[in-house]
Amino acid sequence: MKQGIDKDVLALILISLSEVDSTVVYEFETMCPYDDINSYRQDDYIVISYSKADDAYKTIFNVPFSRRKALRRLALGLIEQLREADFDMPILWDGNPSKINQLYEVLGDSSSWRLQVIEANKEG
To answer: What angle do CA 119, 96, 71 make, to 5 degrees?
Structure first.
């Protein structure tokens, strides 16, 4: 994501993904005090794992796009990150062609969007 992204565009992306497929999940990793883990949980983040590392906890959460509180906290966190620098936000999504086309139709109105299909290597 680029620092100059408009907050409304960011919201459109996240909401569009959640409406097209509410099973989308983003894996979020952070270092935080133990007490902050519960704060994330209260905003519907799902704890995948945590472990003590120095004076904080390395915590991995799943952020379910089906939960508005989680999506809102994610958006606010992304806006904070963008104040620092550009960054990549890979979302792995096993969308079927119908859902991919539906998402592209919603977001494709802008000339800056392009459809890219990446298929997993099926060799055994």
So the answer is: 100
